[in-house]
Amino acid sequence: MYRTAPLGKRPRWWTELPLIAVVYAVYSAGRLLVRGDVQPAVDHGLSILDIEQTLRINFEHPLNRLFTHHASLGIPADFAYASLHYILTPALLIWAFKRRPADYRFLRSWLMVSTLIGLVGFTLLPTCPPRLLDDTYGFVDTMAQYGSYGWWGGDASAPRGLGGMTNQYAAMPSLHVGWALWCGVVMWRHGRSAWAKAAGVAYPLAITLVVMGTANHYFLDAVAGAAVMGAGLLLARPALRLLDRIRNRFFGAVREETTGTPANVSGGCETSAGTAERPREADASDQIPRQPAHGAGDSRTDGAAAAAR
Prior knowledge:
Blueprint: H1 13-33, H2 38-55, H3 60-69, H4 71-99, H5 101-124, H6 142-145, H7 175-190, H8 194-213, H9 219-259, E1 263-266, E2 269-272, H10 284-287, H11 296-308
Antiparallel strand pairs: 1-2
């Protein structure tokens, strides 16, 4: 479905970790830098809620009431919201690195490109989640309600006391749902057992219910999260090609600067400039006619000559 062309050497962990860390740092810093004013975020949230009510797709209302009234549902949902995207997503990325090296670069690029697209959404459309709307809209923040059971407080999934380290208005799109969809595709596509494939279907659906039931996202946030992953899927391959061109130019320039010899690539092998297409000159030994070796063939020839005489 999305297997890339042969990529040569297997990615190395000491180059992959800094790349992933840089992208995640940009994403985290971007979320904090684009907080904006509260009122526009509230207005956007109310607009989304109004659209959903008009279309009768405001599924977050009944789900939130269900999670609020039944701790047996609300508490596990809060744990799932606060932790699974930090555990399962990197775990599957590491698994793909070790067990699916031919697909790893594409999967990693798909996840990163989608995450950066989500950051653009946070910037252009800061959105107040349902739990932060006025109480008259009927939502209860289950993270705050069941906060005594976990490490989180009333500030989204941030650990208690670290609410200032997160942007609570980065709700559109829902990357909880987007990352869960990525995990689901990886498990469905590459899982060998029926249980893995079933988990690939169940996990993104469960997270969609969780983000709405905990009042952290609207249904349209979840839809936008899936759409972001679709856009990332389409852009991952062009992004890989662009990254490869940039890397080849950079390392080619570095090699030319350090050795004075530009590098060309021919047939997948690195060669010095001017040697890739140069035909091999014939050796002097190639011009000397070879003498027949003495052996069984010579005895037959001598025998034929003797018979002729």
